Amino acid sequence: xxDREELVRFGVSFPxxxxxxxxxxxxxxxxxxxxxxxxxxxxxxLLEPTRLKGDEFVAGTIVVVYDHHVRELPVVLMDIQHDYxxxxxxxxxxxxxxxxxxxxxxxxxxxxxxxxxxxxxQIQKGVSYAELSVTFAExxxxxxxxxxxxxxxxxxxxxSDRAHRSE
Length: 167
Description:
Blueprint: H1 16-29, H2 34-46, E1 57-67, H3 73-83, E2 88-95, E3 100-110, H4 111-122, E4 127-136, E5 163-165
Parallel strand pairs: 2-5
Antiparallel strand pairs: 1-3, 1-4, 2-3
């Protein structure tokens, strides 16, 4: 939170049992007070993919767990990702066990397109888990405080439409 943001105070009523559970939760998470925890929960709720407009520019991940023994599923998933290559920044493939693979797909683009990618993945037979998680982002080349791409530290790397790493 910026030092310049105006704070607005309001009252919240909780049932005694719920506030006890909430206080335990915020202590476990390391929050200093209830206000910090409530602010984070509000931010998270506002970033739920189902409530964002399709034209909003976001960045995030799609986490997928699937059975790689399901006929053609790895090839189908790769083909789907190629259909969305402009939205995919990178992915990581991990073998969880003999049967299951986990992929983390880093995405950046319009919410509508990322929803489409997520939906196409999650409906595939053999996909046991697929979750899209996003945050707001600036479109490519529109970094805050400048006209170009800047991370704020001195390093170089190449940007490609898609990087693929597998074992």
